[in-house]
Amino acid sequence: MFSLRFDKEDIEYWAHLYNGDSDDPIEKEIVPRIRSADFVTRPDFLKLCDWKSPRIRRHCEKNSEEFVEAVTRTAFSTTNEQLRIEVLTLLRGVSWPVASVILHFGCREPYPIMDFRVLWSLGVEAPKQYTFEFWWEYTKYCRQLADRCGVDLRTLDRGLWQYSKEHQK
Predict the structure, then answer these.
(1) Any domain includes 2
(2) pLDDT tens-digit readout, 78-87
(3) What is the mean pLDDT of residues 26-31?
(4) H or E segment and range at residue 115
(5) Contact 28, 147 (CB under 8 A)
(6) Is the CB of residue 6 less than 8 Å from the CB of residue 154?
(7) Residue 169 lies in a domain
(8) Which range marks the domain in which residue 92 is found?
(9) Rounded distance between C-alpha atoms, residue 151 and residue 165, angstroms
(10) Total count of domains within the chain
(11) What's this model's pTM, rounded to 2 decimal places?
């Protein structure tokens, strides 16, 4: 299903070209807070949503602090992969790609970010309707690809995203 559009040895090259300035506050401040608490606070949730898609802010703001905490605590504590991703979509404004951002930055286990650019770099178009099966195959493929390339999923994500930015029409 997935097929890298460029040589896997070039992942780090493309990742290096990625301008990750907006990632710094997330990686340096938000990730440690989330991982020590095992849930996401509403302010951090809004920052993650803004980072992925600023246009969804008004929807995300409709979630209460208690609901954000309960949903994210459930997602981070379960071992059921389908529950882990799908429970996050109960949050207003949270689609599968946004849910993948929450897992990527919040879980101790590695999860890729689902994005139309990354999918394109892997030889597929974003589906009209996401399913657990599609997301899980994508997750397993990205984990295996990162292992084969000797990089973490953040580096893989940056490389795939940047390659698409420079090559996708």
Answers:
(1) no
(2) 999 999 999 9
(3) 94
(4) none
(5) no
(6) no
(7) no
(8) 8-164
(9) 20
(10) 1
(11) 0.95
